[in-house]
Amino acid sequence: MILAGAVTAAAASLWLLLPRGSENRIARRAGLVLGAAALAGFIVTGRRLGGLGEEAVFLVVSLVAVISGAATIVTRSPVYSAIWFALSLAGVAGVLLVLGAQFLGVATIVVYAGAILVMFLFVLMLAQPSGLAPYDRVSNEPLLSAVAGAVLLGLLSLSIGRLAADPTCCAAPARQPAAVTADAAATSDTLAVDQVARLGGELFGRHLLAVEVAGVLLLVALIGAIAVVARGEAALEDDRRLAAGGARR
Amino acid sequence: MNAFLPSPATIAALVKIGLLVGGLMTAAAYLVLLERWIAAWVQDRRGPNRVGIPLTKIRLFGLGQPLADGLKIILKEDFTPKHVDRILYNAAPLVILAASLAIFAAIPFGSVLPPLGIPGLPDPVPFLVAPGLDVGVLWVFALSSIAVYGVLLGGWASNNKYGFLGGLRSSAQLVAYEIPLGLGLLGVVLAAGSLKLDAIMNAQAESGVWYALAQPLGFLVFMVASFAEAARLPFDLPEAEQELVGGYHTEYSGIKLLLFLVAEFLHMITAAFLIVIMFLGGWHLWGVTGSSQEVTWLGALTRFAVLSGKILAVIVFFMLVRWSWPRFRFDQLMNLAWKVMLPLGLANLVTVAAVEEFRPQLVSTLGPAAARWAAIGLPWLVFLVGWITAGILTPSGTDNTPVRTHGPHDIERDILHHEDRRRELAGTP
Predict the structure, then answer these.
(1) What is the pTM of this model?
(2) Which residue out of A84, A96, A110 would a mutagenesis test of the B interface target, given it has the greatest number of B Cβ atoms within 10 Å?
(3) Cβ within 8 Å of residue B400, ≥6 positions away
(4) Topology (CATH) of A2-165
């Protein structure tokens, strides 16, 4: 019941907060209040972790992740959006660290916050954000996207809540899809030793084919990118030759 | 036990954090003085030698200088220009300093203390804030990539052309040199079989072969890349004062500038720590420190002293390089990263992987002693070959004759030709 209310409140708050043409102060405030209510609802319905300290740290990092995730899509400036996204990723990494998935947490920061987002910021800063057209700074279909997000959120919370309530599901780590969750479930304490070694064993044992395929895919992408660049130069040369009256190679 | 009382492990961690942060900040202040002394020595000046104990006439070779420097920069006006993006402008120095300090959570600053006998504390007590972190090297890597945000945001939020150019240069440089840095690091991780920095030190102490000796190519690549990551002189383009005033911190003053400068010094200290821990044996010194995990108080202090001495030596090397090398041009910088350091790093990784893979076969065919020398000799062979190849294939590139590229005149000519061609095409049905 509380969950349904929280999901509805989250949807309404997002709908009110998403940027549109005109600034409406009252809608903004109402959205903030509703968002806070939704967060409180989620906190009330959530399951408790072990100790008090763990609980507090988890609460802080998950709130950072959720709030800055919402702020990512709510802010108008692309640069601020990227910063909020980085903060959200840091929150997610914190959640993963608290839950004992150290490698995944640190890898999130290295890959997303450290590499991809820096690239984003680089491009965003080169393209002056003030030069954007107004229709680029408002969201398309705010109602639909808020509702879709809320439905997804509600379904996920419900199904995960059921899974967690079912005592038979999480006993067998073999049924867990990802290696990391199996790891985290098998050793509940945060300071598990040999985490990376076990993760590596899992990846290069059971999931060897997937890892190899991903590697080949990345290689293909790399070669493709180089080919596009090389083709670009060749095309330029072709154009030049064409312009000079010559024939295409 | 009461749930609200912190456990002994928490208290130990807090004590370590306090010692580390206090030590680092003091070290940064005195390293500035050391840097000024070395600069003076290289340039044949006297350097700062006046400030001693405050309110007295005692000079003490200028050892009071950091206090005067700090007071001066803190008391200066903290001016915020009107045209900046206020939130990000204020956040940038905090981000960069927080990230550079948080790196040290995973960096050991000694070996282990002998058992203290306090219940609830792990025995022996490691010199490391987060001993349970199994991904220490990756943690360092992740947080140093977070520090890029400080530079980028500072440059952008200043709304200043010099600052912006400095931020762009810096982020391009840091992103480019992260790859050779990672490759140099991977070789060590592969050989030690662990991502924990203290385990890497222990592996070197046990075998007695520092990774600088076993992987010379990796050492070279890592060293150059960490100079670039710390933005020290051959690679200090982000803040080249002759071109960009101050780069990304042009618009900063007072205590915010201090935060940026301290963070920069911390980057250099981090780089020195990593070089020593990963390649120069950490606390290990042949015949002086043992290699076992059981130590006396004297042994623990000796190891701490050895590690600190090595780090100081590396930092002095950093400072000497600063005053003996001219700055790279930006294209040279990028060429060095992508065309020289990246292939050399890959060569090192392949060599290390081959040596580690075939070590059992080597031991069984040659015997342990000869196998050890072979495992050291092969990487040195690759090192020499790689060095010579890099030297032959990429000429020094120091000539400054302008390279003929597709300039504005060519583009104009191209456009004219294209228009001719289009007219021609339009004319023929």
Answers:
(1) 0.79
(2) A110
(3) none
(4) Four Helix Bundle (Hemerythrin (Met), subunit A) (1.20.120)
